[in-house]
Amino acid sequence: MGSLPVDLEKALNGCANGDRLALRQIFDQEAGKLIAVAQRIVRRRELAEEVVQDAFIRIWTHAHQYRSDSGSARGWIYAIVRNRALNLLRDGRREHVVEDVETLRDDQQADEIMAAWHRLDRNSRLYECLGSLEDTKRQGILMAYVGGYSHGEIAGRLRIPLGTAKSWIRRGLSALRECLA
Questions:
Q1: Spatial CA neighbour of 49 closest among 30, 28, 34, 29
Q2: TM segments (predicted)?
Q3: Quick one: three-class SS letters along 95-117?
């Protein structure tokens, strides 16, 4: 079909205003990738499909809560799917060892985060300011605001204490604010 990619932020605003076509557009564009993300967590295709269906109900009913200043629309949507999948495991509907959940590597999410960084206009102030941060601080901020990761998830993925992750993100954000001002 070769259609243009859906503007997820606009589509979420559409959902918030009751536009079912907007939800359909998000589904058509993202469902395949979202099922793959969920399947890496729950390990079974039919459970992954169930997770994504639940997530789309939540996306529809909670779209009004999405705020662009707290991360990308894609990050918000993927975070809902990840949380739904992890809740499914936690609810014991799957026999799974905690270590399995903890060691999950969401490569697609990591790629997504780096792609967002590389998609930024090289001449933009944001790119310049993010580029001036230490790697780990930049990575922490991108994981939080593009990937939708919690501070705990970031600490786990970067293998650092939770307090360190929180202070890196806090300091990185204040350096970013200062740079952008």
A1: 34
A2: none
A3: CCCHHHHHCCCCHHHHHHHHHHH
| Cβ within 8 Å of residue 116, ≥6 positions away | 72, 142, 146
Distance CA 8, CA 177 (A): 25
* Gap between the Cα atoms of 34 and 50, Å rounded: 11
Q: At what angle do helices 73-90 and 20-42 cross, to 10 degrees?
A: 50
Task: Say how far residue 46 (Cα) sits from the centre of its chain.
Answer: 22
pLDDT in tens, 85-138: 888 877 654 444 444 443 444 555 666 677 777 777 778 888 888 888 888 788
Q: Cα(167)–Cα(11) distance, rounded to whole angstroms?
A: 34
- Tell me the C-alpha to C-alpha distance, in Å, between residue 128 and each of 22, 38, 118, 157, 173: 34, 34, 12, 25, 14
* Domains annotated on the chain, with CATH: 1-99 (1.10.1740.10), 106-181 (1.10.10.10)
Q: Which amino acid is at 148?
A: G
